Amino acid sequence: MRIGIAQLNTTVGDIEGNADRILAAYRELVEQGAELVITPELAITGYPPQDLLLVSGFVKKNREQLDWIQQQVGTVPLIVGFVDLNESGRGKSFLNAAAVLQKNQSIRIAHKRLLPTYDVFDEARYFEPGEKSSMVEIGGEKIGITICEDLWTPDYLPQALYRCDPLQELMAAGVELIVNLSASPFQMEKPARREKMLSAQAKRFRVPIVYCNAIGGNDQLIFDGNSMVIAGDGETLQRLASCREENKVVDLTKLSSASSLLDHENLREQELRELYEALVLGTRDYLYKCGFQKAIVGLSGGIDSALVATIAVAALGPDAVTGVLMPGPYSSQGSVDDARALAENLNMPTLYLPITNSYEEMMRGLQKPFAGRSVDITEENLQARLRGLTLMALSNKFGSMVLTTGNKSEMAVGYCTLYGDMCGGLAVIADLPKTLVYELSHWMNREREIIPRATLEKPPSAELRPNQKDQDSLPPYETLDKILELVIEKNRSVSEIVACGFEEKIVRWIVTQVHRNEYKRQQAAPVLKVTGLAFGKGRRFPIAQHYIE
Fold first, then answer.
1. Which CATH superfamily is domain 274-473 in?
2. Which of 35, 128, 148, 149 is catalytic?
């Protein structure tokens, strides 16, 4: 059978636009000889639709578009993801569904059995699980339809979450081919892990799997594509593009082994490339889908702003990104020079708007209420807030989105300023620990110098007081990031982390800072998720709480 895989970038809520996109891909693939076309999970609504599902008329409109697509398709079947109404009178109002559409045929519907409700997923809030797995016969072949999580096994999930095995049930019914409509978001190392899981499932049941994953950025989530075809012996036969749309027809009778993501000698370099592509895609889609065409980045001469600017230029083009240099009373000439060198390397326009005069005027105005009090973090934060004020003024005037430049390490312990460097519409690298910021920046310089060498080599500093260094306030980033991973992604207690060989005083300070600064993070810009657990909707901690064990 020749199967057309439509690896689509849909927009949440753009029901008519998504339907047009689905139909265009369908026609292209049929013209190329497809005998069956499949799309990603919830392709009509976009994934995840969240509380849009509860808006009056939303699900009805999605069903109307499904019926419209049914009227447009020909004799070649199309399997498309949509939201179905639960008419049983029991449970949640909706079902995550896939419909088989074909000319002169009634619509056949499959429902998702396993509903992820952990990390960023919240499907049990909206959907009722399907009662049985669905098999259809197309072209004389028995095809099992699965939707994303239905294909995952306990070995690749956070824990054994489910009581049924949809794939096993389908095999008992005699299916000869499995198709999977997926919206599986990106995180580092996941593309290879996903391929390993699909290979294990194919070998387990000696059945080929055709896997169609979404691509695109939808708010904090980035979908990386990497759709693929796996043979019954577990071999990867075909893989579609990473982080870009692609429509491809695959002939299951003529495929030979393709290179596996697991085969590469330099796996870390591959992971860094995937990370970079995902951040570029997530940045581009967030701006465009929110109606922005241009971005603003404050350039300090430091590594974080350099990395954000480089990603933004790759996402939007150099003419659409403006770097703003805002030196203050403690900024070094070297940092100004590094910022200018970066902008020249990226061929991006810049504005030079020093804040020293504004800062001195503010200090004169505050002299009376501050009388008798020593200089402290207040004066440092004032500089950051003047920069935030400048960036937001430019954003308002020119309709550009400000991209924040804070990393995960700083966000975790509150080494950032509300209404200062946290101002902006998207936190591009706020899920990258500082050590990963350096690693990715070095990788980006592998062919030519983009980020100036001086930026990579000098000790990181906010330059808010004379001779300031990050390490004046923070543990070494190598230590900090290792402990933060245990705190944030592993949810380890203080005693468990100390047992790993870390000094208890440092561990307690870090854990205290993480909890204490939750109020800042809940006011931060949305974070592009690229690790196992990002700040945002996947991590739900109370702000007012006093638990440290």
1. HUPs (3.40.50.620)
2. 148
The domain segmentation of the chain, as residue ranges, is 2-263, 274-473
487-536 pLDDT per residue, tens: 999 999 999 999 999 999 999 999 999 999 999 999 999 999 999 899 98
Name the catalytic one among 35, 41, 149, 271.
41
Beta-sheet strand order (sheet of 321-325): 350-352, 321-325, 295-299, 401-404, 426-427
Fold classification of 2-263 (topology level): Nitrilase/N-carbamoyl-D-aminoacid amidohydrolase (3.60.110)
State the DSSP code for 144: E
Assess whether 148 carries a catalytic annotation: yes
Per DSSP, the residues of 319-367 read GGEEEEE---TT--HHHHHHHHHHHHHHT--EEE---HHHHHHHHHHTT
**Residue 112 bears catalytic tag:** yes
Cα-Cα-Cα-Cα dihedral sign, residues 470, 476, 482, 484: negative
Concerning whether 290 is annotated as a catalytic residue, the answer is no
Encode burial over 334-343: b for 16+ CB neighbours within 10 A, e otherwise.
ebbebbbbbb
pTM over 0.85: yes
3 state DSSP class of 181: strand
Contacting residues for 368 by C-beta, under 8 A, at least 6 apart: none
